[in-house]
Write a structure and sequence with these properties.
Blueprint (H helix, E strand, L loop, with lengths): L2 H8 L17 E7 L2 E7 L5 H14 L4 E7 L20 E8 L7 H14 L4 E5 L7 H4 L9 E2 L2 E2 L2 E3 L2 E5 H4 L10 H13 L6 E7 L6 H9 L4 E6 L3 H16 L4 E12 L6 E2 L7 H7 L4 E7 L1 H9 L3 H4 L4 H19 L51
Parallel strand pairs: 2-3, 4-10, 4-11, 5-9, 5-10, 11-12, 12-14
Antiparallel strand pairs: 1-2, 6-7, 8-9, 12-13
Helix pairs in contact: 3-12, 6-7
The structure holds adenosine-5'-triphosphate (ATP) and magnesium ion.
Amino acid sequence: MTIEDIKKELSNVQYPGFTKSIVDFGFVKDVQVNGNACAITLDITSSAPEVEEALRKDIAAKLSGLEVTLNIKKPEAPKQNSNSVSGKNMAPQIKKVVMVSSGKGGVGKSTTTVNLAIAASMQGKRVGILDADIYGPNIPRMMGLNGAEVEVVGNKAKPLNAFGVDVMSMGNLMEEGQALIWRGAMIMKAIQQLLRDILWEELDILFIDMPPGTGDAQLTLAQSVPVSAGVNVTTPQHVALDDSRRSLDMFQKLHIPVAGIVENMSGFICPSCNTESDIFGMGTCDTLADSYNTQVLGNLPIEPAIREGGDAGKPVTYFQPESISAKRYMMAAEKLIAFLDSVDDNISNESIQPTNPPGVSACSTAGASSAAAKPQQTQQSSGGSCGTGCGCH
Ligand SMILES: Nc1ncnc2c1ncn2[C@@H]1O[C@H](COP(=O)(O)OP(=O)(O)OP(=O)(O)O)[C@@H](O)[C@H]1O
Ligand SMILES: [Mg+2]
């Protein structure tokens, strides 16, 4: 075989997860032939071991008649923070994980996740969304990806992409209705699989849309990857704020730095006259934020365009960038990015991970010890119980 013959064969080797070949991508840097032996040098862009493994297999198959020496150069793997519980970070290629949580359901977590993610992407970040709401995955509809087919590469699935944001949701992996059968241990497994068995690219920020409350899903996530920031979403009425405190306490107990609070459904903008009126209240989150030594990332009004965008899979931030809401999401994302920049990359993972052993509720530990580089000092909740149904007594 000549060098040209070998290059021709290599032009049929697809780069894992993409439709283009390693030749099209320009990853083949050198090919040498000596009789029945050849030496190939590749320079690829991913540090993921499964990419190298897949390439080695494919190239060996394509050049099965030759004795192949394959030299694969790849970027240094991102620093693998150790997890205090499992000793592992399941997704080291992701720089910052943001958990979007709330004390109760229906306050706008998924809407906030989608719009903040798009706003961060529009600000130049490489962004993904993981829909960790196993029971009620709404992200596919909100991102216009309902029914979209997931591509499987080897034994892993490739994230979908919409509006420049990578997305994965159980809603895209299962038949409709199947989600109803998920139970405790299965939820934990499913969330870990969504981190480990999805071909997440190297991302600046992965937003995680959580189910409501403070239970297994939140704990599993915090034990599986370092979570750099928590975003609490709440509506402004006092009844909702009480639930919000539980969510903020949970961040504290899981040693997750709180990036801030999104006050959602804060006032109503009338579509006919454009005036803002106070339905659930407005501005009540400032005091809450102060008491947890954090900030309000944004006040999002009740705006029909937000709901319509969610239902139609046309997020307001992307489709109506001039709307008040889109501008507020952009500002909130800017604040969040600034916060993430302030969270030390080299922060010991142990300081943002729960310290209790697997299976033991984080809420059963009385008072979290103060984290090393904790960017905010949160209020200590009373006693050893948070009253959230997360298993503490
Ligand atoms: N600011 C807003 N203005 C108008 N509608 C909104 C606003 N925020 C959210 N909504 C709508 O309210 C509904 C609930 O929002 P969403 O699904 O984001 O809440 P959630 O907290 O994720 O709910 P769950 O707890 O069920 O996951 C959706 O129909 C959404 O479009
Ligand atoms: Mg939701």
